[in-house]
Amino acid sequence: MKRDIQNVPYGYEPPAEQRKGTLIFYDSFERTTDFELAVAAKTAADRRFTKFVLYPLHEETVRRMTREPVQSFYKREERLHEWKRDQGQSFITVENLEGKRKKYTPLDSALRHITDVYPSPYFLYVTPEMANQFAAFSSFEEWIVKLRLILSAAPANIHPRLEKFRHRWDVVGEE
């Protein structure tokens, strides 16, 4: 077994990594426009994230969370893959956990999967409505200390738990 010996000058410190963390866009992507996707991707690039993950929700998950009718999962996922190819950026990923499961996936399970697979720190990019739904879950206080939220717009009404943790979230454009 050959060993490669490297010489470095005294006091050398490797350069600090420029990019870190993961921005997860957690949404159904039913009404999300290409412009909104571009704004989210620009936010990921501006804040220098290592990964930008698009996490489309399965129909069953959307039905349980919002009771809205949505297109089938594969159609929405196909649209995201097409948008990703058009962008031509390698740090964008479309997560397919819900496509593999083919059923309702609780937010806790999705977040556990994301924290196992992608590099930290974690930022969840959500709409104000989704943020209020997330705040309504009993596990919200457990997760909000492990990740931060980035809201796509300023919320009209704020859930009390979301207001309590105001220091853990911000709105795109307010930086």
From TrEMBL:
Annotated GO MF terms: DNA binding; zinc ion binding
Pfam families: GATA-N
Gene Ontology process terms (BP): positive regulation of DNA-templated transcription
Protein name: GATA-type transcription activator N-terminal domain-containing protein
Domain called GATA-type transcription activator N-terminal: residue spans: 90-146
Record organism: Paenibacillus monticola
